Amino acid sequence: MHFHSNLPHGLVGHNVSFTSALAFACKAARHQCPLLIVGETGTGKDEVARLVHAHSARAEGPFVSLNCAALPESLIESELFGYERGAFTGAGRSYAGRFAAADGGTLFLDELGDLPLASQAKLLRAIEHREVTPLGSLRTRKIDLRIVAATHQPLDELLRERRFRYDLFYRLNVARVQLPPLRQRRDDILELAAHFMAPLRRTPEGANVGWFDHDAVACLLSHHWPGNVRELRNVIESIFIDPPEGAITPHALPSYLTERTTTGWGDELVRQERRRILDTLSATHWNKTAAARDLKWSRVTLYRKMAKHEISCAAQESTPGTPGGSGI
Ligand SMILES: Nc1ncnc2c1ncn2[C@@H]1O[C@H](COP(=O)(O)OP(=O)(O)OP(=O)(O)O)[C@@H](O)[C@H]1O
């Protein structure tokens, strides 16, 4: 399967690791096997789960999701498997649960890594036997569904810490889709920004908003994006709260985004490297072989870096107090 700019279900992106993850998800969707989607928060795990459902033989069936991190431990099992009336205090009527609701379709278990160990055992049993027993009931119910699970936590670590069961992991880790964080698909940032801007531009207040100017583009491209695509969507929405007329400058961006760039991490690193080279050269009395050794570089690398930082031996004369001081 090949993806073009506008991916199914409105998923946007050209980046190769992203599109190949989607292509794999769509291939796996046609099989019955469970699917495990791994990726940081906001990378699109929920969207991909819906995409898998839509591409599966169960597309006509229900898509039901449960966020395992959002419920207290005591409620997870009754939510998953349902309960009979009177099963516990407050159970005024019976409840079928998410497994039953997803019968014939897809059950999306989000934040699976947060599922308590005791519930993991029951989940495994339900998957293996394809049946559930609601709390307080003696009757089991046959269920036919496909499990798609997602986690932002590295399950391997949870396995090592014994917070996740190996048997459940192996049951679910049949087809694994790894979604890259946005900072590893920076080539998609502007396309995603345009995608989130399009509907906002169609509002009367947003109609005069232009495109990002050079500096604003630099901010977007250099940000670390810990909240991934969701964070980018929020940034775009924040611009339209008080929409600028014409080009979007860094002033229109949230300050946490621009502060980083204006402090110039990149610039600072370059400055630090230049200083380190000059200090080492002066400590070795401008003996390039010794300096390269101290810097753990080859002589060629040292010469290349000196050229890049425009450090020539002439600097030696112009450096006051050499050897000793760097002069900058
Ligand atoms: N490739 C994409 N194209 C368009 N929109 C996207 C894309 N990826 C994610 N989004 C949007 O970003 C937001 C976050 O995505 P989603 O909820 O799927 O992330 P998630 O990985 O499930 O997050 P969490 O782990 O926090 O549940 C949603 O609004 C989603 O529509």
Automatic annotation (TrEMBL):
SMART domains for this protein: AAA (SM00382)
Alphabetical list of Pfam families matching this protein: AAA_lid_14, HTH_8, Sigma54_activat
Record's keyword terms, sorted: ATP-binding, DNA-binding, Nucleotide-binding, Transcription, Transcription regulation
UniProt organism field: Sphaerotilus microaerophilus
Lineage top rank: taxon: Bacteria
Protein known as: Sigma-54 factor interaction domain-containing protein
Boundaries of every Sigma-54 factor interaction domain copy: 11-241
Coiled-coil intervals, chain numbering: none
Gene3D superfamilies for this protein: 1.10.8.60, Homeodomain-like, P-loop containing nucleotide triphosphate hydrolases
